[in-house]
Amino acid sequence: MPRFNHEMLREIYEQPLALRRTMGLYLANNALKPDVAALLAGWAIPEGEILIAASGSSRHSGLAAEIMLEDLCGLAVDVEYASEYSCRGVNANADVRHPSVLVLSQSGETSDTLAALREGRRRGQKTLAITNATASTMATEADVSMPLAAGIEKAIPATKSFTCQLAVLYLLALYEGARLGRFSAATLATYIREVEALAGQIEAQLDGWREQMAALAIKYKSANTFLYLGRGIHYAIAREGALKLKEASYVHAEGYPTGELKHGPNALVSDTVPLVVLATVDRALDASVLRYEKTLQLLRDMQAQGARVIAVANSGDEEVAGLASDCVFVEPASEYLLPIAEVVPLQLFSYFMALAHGVDVDRPRNLSKAVVESRPQP
User: Fold this and answer.
1) Is the residue at 372 inside a domain?
2) Contact at 8 Å (CB) between 182 and 312?
3) CA-CA distance, 245 to 67, in Å (whole number)?
4) Domain of 269: which CATH number?
5) Do 341 and 230 share a structural domain?
6) Domain that holds residue 144
7) Are residues 114 and 32 in the same domain?
8) pLDDT at 375 (0 to 100)
9) How confident is the model over 130-154, as pLDDT tens digits?
């Protein structure tokens, strides 16, 4: 059994169990639960519009959900910063759009996200809350609650709550897709088998990732800034990987869509500004293969440019490995499940970078687990 000197590392290792517990809330006998389907039936509006409001890591899971719900269900999804949505000041009577509102929050008490939920309710919109606390304010005030079973998360950087959010959002897409008749019974059964297998795949890779990311943290300790790159649904994970590095280790990082690197950020790339490139692929999905091929070309360009690159790729992908300075392998999965696996080595990298920089990784400065509204000082 690995030793855990910090809660963050313990919670990273708890993710397979947390994922299994969470899936157990929504799956039974390799099928969607009818009672959950009935609960969700009245939430999505006939027009198929959804607004996701969240902050921090939860917003990044919302960005992934946007791709899942649009691609798998044909829904129209917008993702808002909760802190912005609740301050828009739109007159409910003048707003011609009334999408269903989905809020995401680990604690269920984040003030900006709670304000967004209440704004949606004020406008008469259907609301759904996904939180890690079944008795939280958001869970009780929303029309529908989809809880996580991540367990108590003590470290401030979100790890197991984030991957459980991604899992529940994927399951939401399966429930919505089934309700809308978007896939056959056989296809749905395949999707369920794939998501149920994911926890075991992650569990089998944890020790290898731990060893590799500890070594990479030492190798890249002197870097001033990291640029994280991902295409499609993987852009959300690039954003999350960059946020984890910033909050855990105090090393600056930014997440970008891969194709945007040459539209300005490439000017920063140097020996002290490495790239972290998500280069996984779902060979069964043409769009994923296209994104992968474009990423390969960017890796060729970056190799010619002399950039330092950490790539995350499918296990055994020697082409990506040959184009990167370092390559982290992730077992193949479907396009919409790969983010749950590929974020884990990025969490470990941020953890070990924090240790390399002498940071108290469980309690980063200036941060708290739930961001609640501050009160004016008397």
Assistant:
1) no
2) no
3) 24
4) 3.40.50.10490
5) yes
6) 7-197
7) yes
8) 44
9) 999 999 999 999 999 999 999 999 9
Cβ-based neighbour number of residue 24 at 10 Å:
12
Contact assessment for residue 230 and residue 255, using Cβ atoms and an 8 Å cutoff: yes
Question: Rounded CA gap, 223 and 216, in Å?
Answer: 11
Low-confidence ranges of the chain (pLDDT < 50): 374-378
Q: What is the pLDDT of residue 29?
A: 94
Residues with Cβ < 8 Å from 192, sequence gap 6 or more? 27, 30, 31, 32, 174
Q: How far is residue 195's CA from residue 325's CA, in Å, rounded to a whole number?
A: 31
Classified as helix, coil or strand, 32 is strand
Chain-centroid distance, C-alpha 90: 29
Residue-level pLDDT at 371: 55
- How do residues 141-194 score in pLDDT, each as one tens digit? 999 999 999 999 999 999 999 999 999 999 999 999 999 999 999 999 999 999
The pLDDT, as a whole number, for residue 378 is 39
Give the length of the chain.
378
**Could you give the residue ranges of the DSSP H alpha helices within 152-252?**
160-179, 185-219, 234-249
Would 267 be classed as within a structural domain?
Answer: yes
Q: Which residues sit opposite 37 in a β-bridge? A: none
Residue entry with tokens 């509006």: 45
Q: Are residues 153 and 212 in the same domain?
A: no
pLDDT value of residue 367: 78
220 token code pair: 């890249």
Q: Same domain, yes or no, for 216 and 177? A: no
Please tell me the total count of domains within the chain: 2
Burial classification of residue 378, based on how many CB atoms lie within 10 Å of its CB (0-12 exposed, 13-18 middle, 19 or more buried) = exposed
- Two structure tokens written together for 83: 């802190």
Task: Tell which residue, 67, 165, 48, has the closest CA to residue 113.
Answer: 165
Query: How would DSSP label each residue in 189-216?
Result: HHHHHHHHHHHHHHHHHHHHHHHHHHHH
Strands 225-230 and 252-257: parallel
